[in-house]
């Protein structure tokens, strides 16, 4: 198995993490804070002040022999509103901005293709960041696997989206109904 990693910021990291856990080929997830103003681990309380510049982000480790970065990025766009600035669902603030942060520059052309396809389909410019990962700090333990530990916990994503993600095959993506 050849693993690779990518970082997705899509609003509250609880739901985005749970969404990616449903996808075949994803072998590990971790919620945390990415691309903030300082190169030190912030606390959740600090990030919630909307002054740190960090985005709630999910580190996704995947089996690159089984699932492609194109598929994962396409799936990401099904879980976010790519036209909303610093807001996803009821969550508002710069920590809830959307972004794709990469560590392997070789993946960039494939990710950019998905961005162009989504822009073309929507007929509008996306407000999703596409940047190299500057830094990532894991969130506190109680945030990890939050929706598994708290099945009735808050999530800005509809439950049906998790079921839909579980049914998708990495070789062929379909639009949700």
Biggest sheet layout: 6 strands, mixed
State the distance separating the first and last CA atoms: 32 Å
Radius of gyration: 15 Å
The percentage helix is: 25-40%
By oligomeric state, this entry counts as: single chain
Coarse structural class: alpha+beta
* Weakly predicted, low-confidence segments: none
Widest β-sheet, arrangement of strands? 7-6-1-3-2-8
Based on CA inertia axes, which overall geometry fits?
Answer: globular
Strand segment count: 8
Listing every helix as H and every strand as E from the N terminus to the C terminus, the arrangement reads EHEHEHEEEHEEHH
Count of helical regions: 6
How would you state the average pLDDT, rounded? 95
Strand content: 15-25%
Explain what you see:
This protein has about 180 residues and is α+β, with helices and mostly antiparallel strands. The model has no long low-confidence stretch (mean pLDDT about 95). Strand 4 and strand 5 (about 90) form a beta hairpin. The chain has a six-stranded mixed β-sheet with strand order 7-6-1-3-2-8, covered by helices on one side. The chain has a two-stranded antiparallel sheet with strand order 4-5. It has helices spanning about 15-20, 45, 70-80, 110-120, 145-150, 160-165, and strands spanning about 5-10, 25-35, 55-65, 85-90, 90, 100, 130, 135-140. The longest helix is centred in the middle third of the chain and has 15 residues, at about 110-120.
